[in-house]
Sequence to fold (383 residues):
Amino acid sequence: MGRHVVIVQGVRTAVGKRNGVFREVHPVHLGAAVLNEVVQRAGITKNSVEDIVMGCVSPVAEQGLNIGRLSALQADFPPEVPAVQINRMCGSGQQAIHFACQAIRSGDIDIAIAAGTESMTKVPILSDGNERTIPESLHQKYEFIHQGHAAERIAAKYGLSRRQLDEYALSSHQRALKAQEQGIFNEEILPLQGLDKDGNSILVSQDEGPRVSSSIESLSALKPVFQEEGMITAGSSSQMSDGAAAMLLMEEGVAMELEVKPKARILHQVAVGSDPVFMLDGVIPATKKVLKKAGLSIDEIDVFEINEAFAPVVLAWQKETGASLQKTNVNGGAIALGHPLGATGVKLMTSLVNELHRRQGRYGLLTICIGHGMATAAIIERV
Fold:
């Protein structure tokens, strides 16, 4: 029979823009808030959690010294509950889910929390490296370029136009605004204290990123960011963000014993390596590999979440896999909603589970592109 892993509960903060509503909130406090909330929502005790795996992409300064453990202690988990911080770059949150799932599936533990936290305000992206990080010997093997340049190369390789990228970015904002209007994210967001523009304390219960003013005119007027004659603008890139998310996983039989109602079953998960120069198209082989493992076709998936690191990543993936864009990032993606690096994977999985339930669908697929050429992917089944 083997052991099956279920998702019991998922929760996230709203996502704040960099230097936005959560600019003064410590990333440990972001992490602690969702760790505390996820066990409360599940109705279990903190001491029944056997491990906490927390993604964080820039684990230095306010995010150093094992932020997983610090967040758990801040959230008043008993000292006996261990925690670890992991970094698979943009895939860290999803990898936290994978590692927690693997620990349960193997029989080492029965109950775990996968989480992620990132304050890109307090600890900017690339803070964990400098010009000495990559040795000259490695530079001789590979051309290390900025992700934005990789996105430009993907757009060129897959024959995408500037107009297509801008139209995709606009649809991300439109879908996100519609989802906010309909209150679709309300159940997954834990309202948290933040600050408005004037420094007054406010309760933040809505993602800060979606722009009502977004239009094809405003997007096409933006200058390329990475290459003078390029196609990628700030408008077709993910937003730098602050936020956290947490997800409670259990062995299915244990969930039944505890009379805890699971939301979804994790069927299969993969991590792949891909070309480190193109970097961001690993989502294509990752998607194909996880579908093959599950014995499913792309058409059998009811909802897709793919991280919108840059618009061409999603469009190239769609072109190569044949996934329907009507089922993809249906409530907007990182271009509109933001990408709090280490938290994104758990945030997206939470949204995917909820959307599957809303649609009464059966299968959901999450995939995330990763720096240096990697990707994570997983398929879940609604319970």
